[in-house]
Design brief:
Distance between the termini: 142 Å
Number of strands: 15
Number of helices: 11
CATH class of the domain at 9-71 and 78-218: Mainly Alpha
Oligomer: single chain
Structural class: alpha+beta
């Protein structure tokens, strides 16, 4: 006979939708078997009833035939031939009646008893176990929901103990009931064959026994067939007994091994967190918004499939796509006073989902698994080995290497020297890269034991007055596209406006700002520190790149969190392998020591747009550089025009002086001509000159004297 389909008892603890779907198939099969067996039972009851009726009728016929001779007929009485013939028939029919009685007894024992026992005992046991399992499953769901609603801030040890004990008891009850239910369903696959074959075998053997009295040949013809059927039934029975024994042993082993897993939050010392996973499956609570401020939580089964996150509800045949988690970002969040919450954001930032794990172990494993998948490690041949190597490298990254060259020669190709204003491979600097930089030690780039800032803090709070004065807009609500009404924003006249979604990873003070290696080293130390201290939280912001500055804007309130003047951004670069990581160095003066210049490196993660952001910053610096050149040219042109205008005024003044001198000369010439009355003429001339002197005043006199 073909193999028997079985339910996997080992997967009862996980209780996945696939297992529930397979359980549904077995339950449908059990219902179909029950319906079919009921019909077959009714048919066999009719056979048995008919056989009993035939036996009774045959016996009644034989009795009537025996009483024929006692009858007194008015005509034809005392017919001895007829009476002897009927007596012979009565004897034969009486023997047949005895055979039918034996056949009825055999049908009751060999046909009706097995099918009645299967119908009344085995099928009712399946229905009873199903009801008990449904009750246990509902109790477990209720206990899990009550446990998920435990407050993280106001923990009551008594309530927590009661809820935890309730979860333990309900989960254990569900697991044990489910295992026994699976065992019964698996056993049913054997019993249904026995329940159908054994009655038929009994029926046929009873019929053969019945016909043996009249035909031995008929028995010989069916003997081999019935022998084979009897052998098969015995083999199935032996296989069933062996399988039942194996399942019982499996149930006992799983009960012992699964006892610690009944707790909703198992001890991580006994069950360590696996950080190298590239596949994960389990139940999570998903947050769904039902209004502006209201939300609901739905418990579903989530699993990863390649680079996709899938979900599947109970009863569904297959899972549905939640989001593409290639190049996504995942971080821990605080949400509605619930524990173990984390948020997944797609690579383009358009879709996000907030999920809640049932335990701290699942919480950390989900974050690590999604982080590994976002790096596309699952596409390699040995994903778990590569993930372990990456995580080990992150842990070892905090140990300083002997030299900068040895630390980076295996991570990225050698960087060629470039002009001071050029930028290669999405990195930029105002200074030139020296060829001897590869021989510098670690201390020449980042000072040892330099503190790392993982949260965004305004420069005003960091005692940077120069930066604070330059920002001027910190804490003010800003439209990132410069479309504010009334007073113009400082970036409204800027040619370039580009907005990017970024997540702040950290910042730290650096000792050098002349090479992209400073950015690479800062990235390494910040990522290593996050991996060691299990810091998954990241602040998401909008980075506005303009020709004047770089701004970090709160995406919800549109408040400017930080402002970086573009001239102070002296270096920017992306990671050589992970293009989502980028950073820049901000040089500022007037720190804690007025005469000291400090450099701080800021590291961000983008949605696979690190090179675009660096290109945008480079373009902004070029536009600002050309704008500065144009401004200086315009100022120089204005100065030239002012000089020309001044020269023109001087020339006009000189012409006016010459004109006045000609007029004066003409007056003097006219006064020296002989006239008929010289005295009168002199008087007239003197009078006119005196009147002119009086009109000019003291300043006019001095001017005329100077002109003369």
């Amino acid at each position: 006979m073909p193999g028997i389909d079985k339910l996997p008892i080992e997967e009862t603890l996980e209780d996945s939708p696939q297992t529930r779907s397979l359980l549904g198939v077995f339950e449908e099969d059990a219902a179909a078997i029950s319906s079919y067996i009921h019909q077959l039972y009714q048919a066999m009851c009719r056979i048995y009833d008919a056989q009993n009726e035939l036996s009774a009728a045959t016996h009644l016929t034989s009795k009537l035939l025996k009483e024929y001779e006692k009858q007194r007929f008015p005509l034809g009485g005392d017919d001895e031939v007829m009476s002897s013939t009927l007596q012979q028939f009565a004897k034969v029919i009486d023997e047949l009646s005895s055979c039918h009685a034996v056949l009825s007894t055999q049908l009751a024992d060999a046909m009706m008893f097995p099918i009645t026992q299967f119908k009344e005992r085995d099928l009712k046991e399946i229905l009873t176990l199903k009801e008990v399992f449904q009750i246990a499953s509902n109790d477990h769901d209720t206990a899990i929901n009550r446990y998920s609603r435990l407050s993280k801030r106001r923990e009551n040890e008594k309530v927590k103990y009661e809820v935890t004990e309730d979860v333990y008891t309900s989960k254990k009850k569900q697991h044990q009931t489910m295992m026994h239910y699976f065992c019964a369903l698996n056993t049913l696959q054997y019993k249904k064959k026995i329940a159908m074959l054994e009655p038929l075998l009994g029926y046929m053997q009873a019929q053969i026994s019945f016909f043996k009295m009249g035909s031995e040949n008929l028995t010989e013809q069916l003997e081999e067939f019935l022998t084979n059927i009897g052998t098969s039934v015995q083999n199935v029975r032996r296989e069933m007994d062996s399988e039942v024994e194996t399942m019982q042993q499996t149930i006992e082993d799983l009960e012992v091994a699964s006892d610690p897993l009944y707790l909703p939050d198992p001890d991580t010392t006994k069950f360590p967190v696996h950080r190298n996973l590239t596949r994960k499956a389990g139940y999570l609570n998903a947050r769904n918004k039902t209004g502006l401020v209201s939300s609901s939580w739905d418990r579903q089964f989530y699993f990863t499939q390649g680079g996709n996150l899938m979900s599947q509800a109970r009863g569904d045949v297959a899972g549905g796509l939640v989001m593409d988690i290639d190049n996504c970002s995942v971080m821990a969040v605080d949400c509605e006073d619930r524990r173990y919450c984390f948020q997944i954001t797609s690579f383009d930032g358009k879709k996000s989902s907030i999920l809640q794990a049932e335990s701290k172990k699942d919480y950390e494993e989900w974050i690590c698994t999604i982080n590994n998948i976002s790096k596309q490690i699952y596409l390699s041949e040995n994903p778990e080995e590569i993930a372990a190597r990456v995580n080990q490298s992150a842990l070892e990254a905090v140990t300083p290497s002997p030299s900068f060259q040895q630390r980076h020669e295996s991570m990225r190709p050698t960087i060629q020297s470039r002009p001071p204003t050029a930028r290669t491979n999405s990195s930029g600097s105002l200074g030139s890269e020296s060829a001897a930089l590869s021989a510098l030690s670690l201390d020449s780039l980042v000072a040892p034991d330099t503190p790392i800032q993982f949260d965004i803090i305004s420069p005003v709070s960091e005692d940077q007055p120069g930066q604070a004065k330059a920002s001027g807009q910190s804490g003010r609500r800003t439209n990132p596209f410069g479309e504010s009404g009334g007073k113009k924003s400082e970036t409204e006249d800027s040619i370039l406006h580009q907005l990017f979604i970024v997540r702040f990873l950290g910042s730290m003070e650096v000792k050098s700002d002349e090479s992209p290696d400073v950015v690479y080293e800062t990235m390494r130390q910040i990522l290593a520190a996050r991996a060691i201290h299990n810091i998954f939280r990241m602040t998401e912001s909008h980075l506005l790149v303009s020709c004047d500055c770089l701004k970090l804007i709160d995406p919800q309130t549109q408040v400017t969190r930080l402002r970086f003047p573009l001239p102070s951004v002296v270096l920017y670069a992306t990671h050589q392998e992970n293009k989502r990581l980028f950073g820049f160095v901000l040089r500022s003066s007037g720190g804690r020591v007025e005469s000291q210049t400090t450099s701080v490196c800021y590291i961000f993660e983008s949605n696979n747009e690190g090179e675009k952001i660096c290109d945008s910053v480079g373009l902004a610096k070029q536009i600002a550089f050309h704008a500065e050149l144009d401004r200086r040219t315009s100022e120089k042109q204005k100065e030239i025009e002012k000089v020309k205008e001044k020269q023109q005024k001087e020339l006009s003044k000189q012409k006016q002086i010459e004109k006045d001198l000609e007029e004066q000369s003409r007056l003097i010439a006219a006064s020296s001509r002989p006239s008929q009355s010289s005295g009168e003429g002199q008087f007239v001339v003197l009078s006119s000159s005196q009147s002119e002197d009086s009109d000019l005043g003291e300043d006019g006199k001095k001017k005329r004297e100077s002109e003369a």
